[in-house]
Amino acid sequence: MIPKYFVLCFSAGLFSLELAAFQNPDLPIDPYGPVLLSDDGSWCWFQDKRAILHEDKLYFSGVTADGKNTLGEWDLEDYSTGTSVISHDILPPDDHNVGALMIRPDGKILTVYAGHGIDSLIRFRISQTPLDITSWQEERQFKTNGRVTYSNIFRLETTGITYNFYRGNENNPHYLVSQDDGDSWKSGGRLFEFEGRSYLRYASDGKARIHFITTDGHPRHFNNNIYHGYIENDQLYRSDGTLVGPLSQNEKSPYKPSDFTLVYDGDLNTRTDVAWTSDIQLDQEGNPYITFSVTKDPITRSETTHTKLGGFDHRYHYASWNGKNWDEREIAYAGSRLYPGENEYTGLISLHPNRKDVVYMSADVDPKNGKPLMVDGKRRYEIFRGESFDGGSQWEWTPVTYQSDEDNIRPIVLADNKREIVIWLKGRYTSYKDYQLKVYGKVLPEGIFTRAKKEKNILFLISEDPNNYEAPWTIPAFAGRLEKETGHQTQVILGEGERTAYHFPGLEEKINDADLLVLFLRRVALRKEQMAMIKGHLLAGKPVVGIRTANHAFSIMNEPIPETHEDWWEFVPEILGHENQGYGPENEKTEVRKEKNQKLLQNIPDEPWISNGNIYLVSPLHDKNANVLLNGTSAQHQEPIAWTRKAGKSKIFYTSLGYPTDFSHPNFLQLLLNGISWTLQ
Predict the structure, then answer these.
(1) Which of 241, 460, 481, 509 is the most buried (most CB within 10 A)?
(2) Where is the ThuA-like domain (predicted)?
């Protein structure tokens, strides 16, 4: 089914629904996005849940630039989107006011929200009918005994009680309870009584237990550790099940954050490595795994004037509980603060709810080395999908957005057994009260990678080059997934040296065992011995896969080459079967279409999709017998963009796709997998 968009607008009292077509009408709808879900929305990260995936619909809360609380809907069957306004002119513009969501047992949607410390009211609404965002009961309020912020709502199946955890009197965490699924509320008690303003994230198994992670206070005022605990049967516990004491049932509490299990020691006495909670999820055994950010260059505690002096080096950390202890480590560079004054604000990191080995993050730097991501002279926040293939020690990163015209921040990950979904905010974020943001979403279906019938050794050769489309990001992540999920043995060699005098460390020991060479490299001359090894691989009748810049892999232009090295211009016409004749306009996307339905394109939909990369000019192909699989159209150019052929006895698969975000598109991943499988048959 080709997703369709439609327009429908109506209003009823305080409620309005707007369903709108957001896609570029000149391009086909690409169901694997990114898809614009709302043209005005924002959220903070201390509310849960801000988004819910229920069957084939995704619901998400938001706050518009002028302060309206909203609830959005994304239908994953027909890709229609809608936004219902929950409140008009009640709260000022502030992303902290975003609502928490819960689908009640009767199917009605509950949303609970509060102002950012402006009054003592917790506000809530319930939909009139199940799973319908267009009609709501009147707003009701619960008055607390102090100024409130945030809402986190969780229903426990064993008791039928719904909890709302919020920041309340004296900036400490409190909770309300409801025995009728949010129709009415009563005060529960105070979680901590502590002089700091602790920041908590919560997660529940939905049955009997609610977990939390917490800081000591705001990172502006405390150096901050990270702690974990959980609530069960109105008792508080440390990570290992040690009882801390009964949950407070009144306005007093004997507890403070440090009464719980220390996950990360930021050294409270030293103004470095200042932590802030980001996300928490539970694995299939009910064990928590968490992420948080660490500021390496904080400004002086409580500084409010010289705020431009720090906050340029943040890192993302990951920790998981194995039943006995916490395994904690730094996993990525996070970049600079979003704006001066909130020097600990990052683009944020979010956990996959079903997989401990997958995260999504926002950063304005390369996650691996901290190098700034520049677009037209400005740093830009981009969204990355991270995956670990060794139990969390090392992470590889695939860009979801790339070379964006605006910042991409605050991803939220949702998943079921069919798909993985990320939603995020794109636009201008000047402060938590001043922003203009859109909501985007992207789907990645499960089951793209399948177990190989015969496991082979695959060797990837890549180069690092400003014009080589971030192969050091995309190929290690792809190779890791390929090995983990298909059983093939993969190795990636990143070349070294000047491109006129290039070499691949360890190639001599690895190439003889390679059943397949995959090349994603650009304009390099190799040592003569290493070039002979690649030619020898082909002379032995072994296959080669070429990706994008492989069509000028060994083509050195107008530069002297040392006598010890050589280029190989003939590689493109003789092996890949075409000539590199240039490129389409740099900023033009490419519409991708199947040439014909054939076995090598199995599991790739017939409908066209979009690559954000410009088209390569290659026609007419030298090899008239090449089997063209895909054609691309861009800026009045129509070109073959994927084909197979034979070079001697060697099977060759080449695609000019391979733009960084192609590696987060399931159709491209399926194409690569099919091409690799074909060459190895």
Answers:
(1) 460
(2) 508-679
pLDDT in tens, 580-626: 999 999 989 999 999 887 889 999 999 999 999 999 999 999 999 99
The SS3 of residue 226 is strand
E strand intervals along 556-636: 565-566, 590-594, 609-611, 627-634
User: Hey, is 637 helix, strand or coil?
Assistant: strand
CA gap 356, 587 in Å, rounded = 36
Q: Are 392 and 329 in contact (CB under 8 A)?
A: yes
Q: Which of 409, 403, 477 is nearest to 438 (CA)?
A: 409
User: In whole angstroms, what is the distance from residue 426 CA to residue 411 CA?
Assistant: 10
Residues 384, 399 contacting (CB under 8 angstroms):
yes
DSSP string, 264-324: E---TTSSSSEEEEEEEEE-TTS-EEEEEEEESSPPSTT--S-GGGS---EEEEEEEE-SS
What kind of architecture, by CATH, is found in domain 457-680? Answer: 3-Layer(aba) Sandwich (3.40)
Contacts (Cβ under 8 Å, ≥6 apart) of 13: none
Is the pLDDT confidence value at 336 over 90?
A: yes
Distance CA 316, CA 335 (A): 9
- Closest C-alpha to 576, from 503, 656, 660: 656
Instruction: Say which residues have a Cβ less than 8 Å from residue 99's Cβ, sequence separation at least 6.
Output: 47, 50, 61, 69, 71, 86, 111, 112, 113, 151
> Could you report the per-residue pLDDT of 452-485, keeping only the tens digit for each?
999 999 999 999 999 999 999 999 999 999 999 9
pLDDT tens digit sequence for 395-408: 999 999 999 999 99
Q: Phi-psi region for residue 224, left (φ > 0), alpha (ψ -120 to 50) or beta?
A: left
Q: Residue 27: its pLDDT value, please?
A: 60
CA distance 252 to 170: 11
Sign of CA dihedral 322, 328, 333, 335: positive
pLDDT at 134: 94
Backbone phi and psi for residue 121, each to the nearest 5 degrees, phi listed first: -100, 130
Q: How do 516-520 and 544-547 pair as beta strands?
A: parallel
Q: Distance between CA 33 and CA 667 in Å, rounded?
A: 11
Angle subtended at Cα 256 by Cα 252 and Cα 261, rounded to the nearest 5 degrees: 140
Name the DSSP letter for residue 339.
Answer: B
Q: Which two tokens stand for residue 196?
A: 């700091």
